[in-house]
Write a structure and sequence with these properties.
heterodimer; A: 257 residues; alpha/beta; Rossmann fold; 4-stranded antiparallel sheet; 9 helices; 30% strand; B: alpha/beta; 12-stranded mixed sheet; 10-stranded mixed sheet; 22 strands; disordered N terminus; ATP-binding (chain A); ATP binding (chain A); nucleotide-binding (chain A); ATP hydrolysis activity (chain A)
């Protein structure tokens, strides 16, 4: 059973003058079958956590460990992490001009699965997955993320999640910028993924509204580079009514809606 | 076919590479083998009046051609080396072999080719293309001369001529003399003069009025001898409302000292005709590739150059269209790759001579490993060419921080009522793009190759399918080990 284990993780980012510590000792264990919501105000380091786990070169791990089923994730290159079963749905997916979505998806599936998917099954699989997310089939021939609206980008991140079937999925503010309908469609996509097997989800969000669609088993409050409180579903309700002010001391950064 | 000929046929046909073989071949220039070289070994080096006379005599040419060659030789001696563009100081004109005859007679079937030459083209996959009817005609030039030639019968019946240029001089003397040198005079530049003095081989095409050649005519150029100079001469005449697409590919072995390829290509597109000329140049990295290409487009005619420069040590090539008649159109689409030790100085030249003419230049270049790409282009709109339009778009991609790209756009407008557009960008492969693709399981080389393929896609899609696939494979080769 898949387990992602993060222990005392410290992460710095190189800014203009000196390295700046963003994560100051994160401890978190996510097991298959569990959904963990990471909630916190802007600038608390939530996205840094997701990028550090995925291996973005901008972030330097200064101490701590990350393991997936006991394997040292921090020793792996970005693509090895993906092939080991980690997936990051990004908040701002980049555009890759001239590369069609269908080519990209098939190349990614081939890399992650270790062999090229059977073409006939693959076409059916992609068509079905796109239909489930209300994605116009014409997107298959468009360049990766190029000219996509925010909502279209998010749907395509979840499309990749469904096709690549990672062991552990990290969703970085997948709900940001989505209208109600899109939020529902995207959430249903995440729930289908959860139901498809023994998988774990780390759901990073600023707002509680996505938790109405995706039920978390655990809620963690993230502030100032670490987890400051953990609880069950009910913790989200507390945050909903009280905001983050208790953890940050600042009203401005604490606004929930 | 005779029994003897059958015996010489190899039992295995060159099949497309399996994935494993393709991967195994990555990182190597796969056309770098050399065949035994008896013809080249005995060829003389250096250029003189004697050499030029000897070439002309060996070909039993008419007197006027010998005179033309000798005049061109004088011009070559007079013309200075171009002082702009790429560094040409490594060319040693005295060490070059100007004429190498590899076989006495031209073959009309692959089986009749000498064994070593046939092996070369088998390995390059040329007979396959013909067998699979991807082409309407094939020419293969080995060293100085065309060794194999074939055209589909129905096209021949319609009056389409597809000959090697030496044969055309003999068999079509009037047509030949009318157009030869009419677009590019011998004294146009030092290398066109060199070609005019020493030319040998190349393609001669004539497409009669209204005839559409539905699939491409293809030529394949191969240099085998070390220090070889290949000076093919191509002349294409597309008559009124006719159409042809001509495709050429080029490879050479890897040697420690340099070879020279200096071709001249002249094209005449008559009223309402259309010509597309596609080149995938993949010379090994010891070839100086200095080519003069120019077309004249008459009223309502369209000329399209599609130019891929992947190989060579130095390329200087600026396909030109002279828009001579109203509503004539010119287009240049070019891709250039420069890796370690390579300089691709490529571009285009559009000369508007008549009203309502339009031109488009789209150039994409990729530099890596310390390679250098330059876009060099001229758009000239002459007096009376009112209501002309021109669009230039050049994008350069730098894969690392040690490579270089420059843009030299020249614009010369002598008429008021014209529309001009110019866009140029230089970009780097972004860390975020690489991260995104790698986070989906692609390794760094695959991710880089995907980004580069995407970058050149707008031009790759204009290539015939098998060439687009070839281009993709070449990009992967070029990108192998490009990072880290």
């Amino acid at each position: 059973m898949a387990t992602l284990e993060i222990k005392d993780l410290h992460v710095s980012v190189v800014s203009e003058d000196a390295p700046k510590e963003i994560l100051k000792g994160v401890d978190l264990t996510i097991k298959a079958g569990e959904t963990h919501a990471i909630m916190g105000p802007n600038g608390s380091g939530k996205s840094t956590l997701s990028y550090a786990i995925a291996g973005h070169p901008k972030y330097t791990i200064t101490s701590g460990t990350v393991t997936l089923d006991g394997e040292d994730v921090l020793e792996m290159s970005v693509d090895e992490r993906a092939r080991a079963g980690l997936f990051l749905a990004m908040q701002y997916p980049v555009e890759v001009p001239g590369v069609s979505m269908s080519n990209f998806l098939r190349t990614a599936a081939t890399a992650v699965r270790g062999e090229a998917p059977n073409l006939r099954h693959w076409v059916k699989e992609v068509k079905g997955a796109m239909a489930d997310l209300d994605i116009d089939p014409a997107f298959a021939e468009r360049s990766v993320n190029e000219g996509f609206s925010g909502g279209e980008k998010k749907r395509h991140e979840i499309l990749q999640l469904g096709l690549l079937q990672p062991k552990i999925a990290i969703l970085d503010e997948t709900d940001s910028g989505l209208d109600v309908d899109a939020l529902r469609v995207v959430s249903e996509g995440v729930n289908r993924y959860k139901a498809s097997g023994e998988v774990g989800v780390m759901l990073i969000t600023h707002y509680t509204r996505i938790l109405k669609y995706i039920q978390p088993d655990f809620v963690h409050v993230f502030a100032n580079g670490r987890i400051v409180e953990s609880g069950g579903r009910e913790l989200a309700d507390v945050l909903e009514s009280e905001g983050y002010v208790k953890y940050t001391g600042s009203k401005e950064a604490a606004a929930l809606s | 076919m005779t029994a003897a000929a059958e015996q010489r046929t190899p039992t295995t046909v060159q099949s497309p590479l399996t994935q494993e073989e393709t991967i195994a071949s990555l990182g190597n220039y796969e056309f770098g083998w050399a065949d035994s070289d008896t013809a080249g070994a005995s060829a003389r080096r250096g250029l003189s009046e004697d050499v030029v006379r000897d070439i002309s005599a060996k070909k039993s040419e008419p007197e006027w051609m010998l005179e033309y060659r000798l005049k061109a030789l004088k011009l070559f001696d007079l013309k200075p080396m171009p002082s702009w563009g790429a560094d040409l100081s490594g060319i040693d004109f005295d060490s070059i072999k100007y004429f190498v005859r590899s076989t006495e007679k031209q073959a009309t079937s692959w089986e009749d080719l000498p064994e070593d030459i046939k092996n070369t083209y088998d390995r390059l996959g040329i007979p396959e293309a013909e067998k699979q009817r991807l082409v309407a005609g094939v020419a293969a030039q080995y060293e100085s001369e065309v060794v194999y030639h074939q055209i589909r019968e129905d096209l021949e019946e319609k009056g389409v001529l597809f000959l090697d240029t030496d044969t055309a001089l003999k068999e079509q003397p009037e047509l030949f003399r009318e157009y030869f040198g009419s677009v590019i005079p011998a004294g146009d530049n030092k290398f066109s003069a060199l070609n005019a003095a020493t030319w040998s081989g190349g393609s001669f095409i004539y497409v009669p009025k209204g005839v559409h050649v539905d699939i491409p005519l293809q030529a394949y150029f191969r240099i085998n001898t070390e220090n070889m100079g290949q000076f093919e001469r191509t002349l294409i005449i597309v008559d009124e409302d006719a159409y042809v697409h001509y495709v050429e590919g080029c490879t050479a072995p890897i040697y420690s000292s340099d070879s020279l390829h200096s071709a001249v290509v002249e094209i005449i597109v008559k009223k309402g005709g259309r010509c597309r000329y596609t080149t995938i140049q993949n010379w090994s990295n010891n070839v100086y590739n200095l080519v003069t290409k120019r077309a004249k487009a008459e009223e309502g005619a369209t000329m399209e150059w599609v130019d891929g420069n992947i190989g060579s040590k130095v390329t200087m090539k600026y396909p030109a269209v002279f828009l001579m008649g109203e509503h004539a159109k010119g287009e240049v689409l070019s891709i250039a790759f420069a890796g370690e030790g390579q300089h691709q100085d490529a571009g285009a030249k559009m000369v508007h001579m008549a009203p309502h003419t339009s031109s488009t230049i789209i150039s994409k270049s990729v530099a890596r490993g310390g390679g250098r790409t330059s876009y060099r282009g001229l758009v000239q709109v002459n007096k009376r060419a009112h209501h002309s339009k021109s669009t230039v778009k050049c994008d350069a991609l730098l894969v690392d921080t040690i490579s270089r790209s420059d843009t030299y756009p020249y614009v010369d407008v002598r008429e008021d009522d014209v529309q001009m557009g110019h866009e140029a960008t230089v970009s780097k492969v972004s860390e975020d793009q690489l991260f995104y693709l790698m986070s989906r399981g692609l390794n760094e080389d695959e991710a880089m190759a995907m980004i580069v393929r995407g970058f050149v896609e707008p031009i790759a899609r204009e290539l015939p399918m098998e060439y687009a696939l070839e281009l993709n494979r070449l990009i992967e080769l070029q990108m192998e080990g490009a990072v880290g």
